[in-house]
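Re-run requested by the PI after the first attempt was lost when the workstation crashed. Everything re-entered from the original request form. Ligand of interest: cobalt (II) ion.
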Amino acid sequence: MALIGDKEYYKGIDDIKYEGKDSDNPLAFKYYNPDQVVAGKTMREHFKFAVAYWHSFCGTGADPFGPGTINYSWDQIADPIESAKSKADAAFEFITKMGFDYFCFHDYDLVREGSTIAESEKRLSTIVEYLKEKKAASGVKLLWGTANCFSNPRYMNGAATNPNFEVVARAGAQVKMALDATMALNGENYVFWGGREGYMSLLNTDLKREVEHMGIFLQKARDYARAQGFKGTFFIEPKPAEPMKHQYDFDAATVVGFLHQFGLQDDFKINLEVNHATLANHTMQHEIAVAASHGMMGSIDANRGDYQNGWDTDQFPNNITEVTEIMIEFLKAGGLQGGGINFDAKIRRNSTDLEDIFHAHIGGADTFARALLIADKILTKSPYSKMFTDRYSSFDSGKGKAFENGEINFEELFEIAKSIGEPELISGKQELFENIINQYI
Ligand code: XUL
Ligand code: CO
């Protein structure tokens, strides 16, 4: 067997560097220049790009119609710890070559689950010790950890929302171990994505009771981690459906309400994923604006969906117009609270060359970088910001201001309306707004 730790996995591919937009080198950044300052911060600080362990080192391209097309050498290693270490070596080599600072994981992306809780715990703590060394040697950090409480058949009826308490307890044990791993690796945040927290049929589902169980579960998880000294932020990642017909964390607005209902609003923020927004019939811009309006814009899972179908294709971002509009909301929100840009995206099943995973991440990072540059120009150099604020200028003084301050009652509104007569029509100028975006692209 090859010497674990000494092997080069992505042979022939050097560190990816910024070469500028005129470079024809497919293995170079054209726009992502980590140290370039835009809107007061370096690109590296704005984005905190992270690689998703599950897609880039576990995903084989298998789909319901056929097996995977990518063979990872570490999957051939029978011993779970040796396999996990080999995978970690590859992961850290890749992240370092990309020049990114972060990774994200599910517990059993790191190491195969054991046949008992005790065995899983032992495996996790062994690989966590190894990852500590890898982190120290490379400077790569953990953006967030999470627990995969959706793949194992035991979770087929849900994890925290399972109608069987035994499964809820099992999920609690798993989340405890994932929290322990995240804390041991100095994870900056912890994510809850309610993979099977939802239902297939209301005929057999007590929705109110299940949502309450989820609220209590999250309170207890928070209390445990805080008692252990975890200072990071918890994120909920909304998704409206898939794998369940209906998922409880439907979208940002639903999650905001849920967090307030269970007193979680001070510890939790939202991790928004582009493709999940699409599936909820929202734009990502809408989701960011909703989360930001509640001070909960925590982190982003970057990808894109396919607008002709209705499932989670997790493609790498490449749509400049879409991401520019996302970056406008991102900058207006003052960036992310604690999180970063995690590429929760996978290469296509027929992308089978070693370098394809590099092209994918380069394209994703360049799309965000280019969109950030454009959005910053739009907000600071174009007429956009003035047009935007001018739309609301009637609330900046006089009676409008008094209304905004809550100082005008309904009788007074009635009198004001009578004295004004019919309000004039003021154009929303949508086409001009859209033209400005295109002009700056
Ligand atoms: C699934 C998804 C997950 C979460 C983490 O759609 O996005 O990978 O990001 O569990
Ligand atoms: Co995600």
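Saved to the shared folder this time. Residues 193, 237, 273, 301, 344 surround cobalt (II) ion (ligand 2) (CB under 6 Å).
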